[in-house]
Design brief:
single chain, 310 residues, alpha+beta, D-amino Acid Aminotransferase, Chain A, domain 1, OB fold (Dihydrolipoamide Acetyltransferase, E2P), six-stranded mixed sheet, five-stranded mixed β-barrel, 6 helices, 36% strand
């Protein structure tokens, strides 16, 4: 008899509702030592499935109802062998390599919603029993039983975890261009809100951006204003800010380039700033930033590319 069947026979259903999710704390690297499991951090939207005998609802991290945006996931949840459940996971679109692609997910929400699947990593309620006070290992074992036997076309997949070295998994994630790793205490209970029982270590990426201006910080440092490299004939889109982190020689070269390219008017679409100096197009810079964010976070300008003549 499976764990799910045993639980079903021992409890009376009381239909669940949305539960505010547990959130990981950002750290520089995964924790060392025993007692942790480590999962690949998928680049998607946090999603909670609430299953009752009569309905399936899909909610965002903030409790918004996105049921109509996830038809494949909702159909899969309706096919599960349970009367009621609350499943926590991440809605993603996978590339041909099997990794999550946030840009493709955003696109799929508009026209190809059948591509979106859920990677489920926690089970909060099942057959009327609140599981949040059970250790994570027990909750995941019940979830694995609930999802057992499904093929690759099913809209919900079990998020595999690794109980080995988090540092090794993090290094592999970085090599593969993945977003990062989430580490969880195997004996931890589920608590809504930010928690140090769940830790996320995110990989950094380096990309080239167009410099559109600089701001002087109150302490006298410099912040670069950046735009994504636009297609020929199309206006560049504001990408965010990055702290200028250069050695003395490169910082001097950077300041000279800004002086040559200074513009009199703010770039279209950005509010004027008394602390900003706007520059003409022409200077491309290398920026290091956290992967998997909709806007630049923890971004540093680390180098200069060739300046366009003129």
């Amino acid at each position: 008899m499976s764990r799910v069947t045993a639980l079903r026979r021992s409890t009376e259903p009381s239909f669940p509702g949305f539960i505010a999710p547990q959130l990981p704390t950002l750290v520089a690297e995964p924790p060392a030592g025993d007692g942790w499991i480590h999962e690949i951090k998928h680049d998607g939207y946090r999603t909670e499935l609430v299953i009752t005998p009569d309905d399936v609802r899909a909610y965002t991290r903030n409790g918004h109802d996105w049921t109509d945006r996830y038809p494949r996931i909702v159909d899969a949840a309706a096919a599960l062998s349970c009367g009621s459940a609350v499943i926590d996971g991440e809605a993603i679109v996978q590339t041909e390599r099997g990794v999550s692609d946030f840009k493709a997910l955003r696109s799929a929400l508009g026209s190809r919603r059948g591509r979106i699947v859920l990677f489920a990593f926690d089970l909060l309620e099942l057959e009327g029993e609140d599981l949040r006070d059970r250790p994570l290992g027990e909750r995941r074992a019940l979830l694995a039983d609930l999802l057992a036997g499904q093929d690759a076309t099913f809209g919900i997949h079990f998020s595999q975890a690794f109980d080995g070295s988090g540092a090794d998994l993090f290094a592999a994630a970085d090599r593969l261009g993945l977003e990062g790793v989430v580490s969880k205490r195997i004996d931890g209970r589920y608590r809504s809100g930010r928690s140090d029982l769940w830790l996320k270590a995110k990989c950094f990426a380096v990309s080239t951006f167009d410099l559109i201006g600089v701001e002087t910080t109150p302490s006298g440092g410099l912040t670069a204003l950046l735009a994504n490299e636009g297609e020929p004939g199309e206006p560049a889109q504001f990408a965010g800010r990055a702290v200028v982190s250069l050695d003395a020689a490169d910082e001097s070269r950077f300041k000279r380039a800004v002086d040559r390219l200074v513009a009199r008017r703010p770039v279209s679409g950005l509010k004027p700033s008394t602390r900003a100096r706007w520059v003409k197009p022409g200077l491309k810079v290398r920026v290091r930033y956290l992967r998997g964010e909709e806007s630049l976070r923890h971004a540093s300008l680390i180098g200069l590319e060739a300046e366009t003549p003129g």
